[in-house]
Design brief:
- The protein is mostly helical.
- The protein folds into two domains: 60 residues; 163 residues.
- 78% of the residues lie in helices and 0% in strands.
- It is built from ten helices and no strands.
- Helix 2 runs antiparallel to helix 3, helix 3 crosses helix 8 and helix 5 packs antiparallel against helix 7.
- It is globular, with a radius of gyration of 19 Å.
Amino acid sequence: MTPASALFLHIAIGSVALLGYWAALLARKGRTLHRTAGKICLATLLLVGLSVGPVLFTRPGPFDPGWVVQMVYLTTCLVTVSAISLAAIRLRAAPERFRGRWFRVLGYVLLAMGALVLAAGLAGGDAMAVTLSWVGLVFGPAMIGFTRHRGPLHPRWWLSWHLNANCALFNAVNGTFLFIAVRWWGLAEDGTGAQVGFQLATMAAALGLRLWFGVRHDAPLRFGAPRARASGGTPA
């Protein structure tokens, strides 16, 4: 596979994932279009992760082990977050299965890899690596904390995790795409500063979406049930 064909395949698959994401985001939640577009998006995101390998190993220039570590980390994050999005819906009646061994192990894996990417980024002055480390450093502890939570769960714990995953995917799907599009239009230079800026912008948008959907659908960030409900009282 040539570098050009590997890149074209990666872009083509990523474009399908982008269209699927926005179709699911804009569709009425729970309806057929939302579910179908969401499944297409998650499936193609896994293919996006797999297509990174050919792009990485056919790129011109000397081989860089640091790129391999970063791509393995990002692919692991992508697969994990996509799995959480789907499992939260399918296992909403079985929280113990949802937060089973796979969930706990991946939580520790993401935390360790996020810390490694952060340390490597700080040591090498790589602002992009430092920025991308947020996935492991946020999702890892949250996943570990959820497996250790032993009190009553919030009735919509599953929707909270579904929203957590999908809003994180907003950053993954849109951050790089927007940077490439704006650069192609000549509105931004090809540099680390611009890349980091677009990543931070889409991260802020993802957080805003998470908070907005959380309020709208009663799916808070916390794991536990409201205090009155947890103690057997009547919510105010």
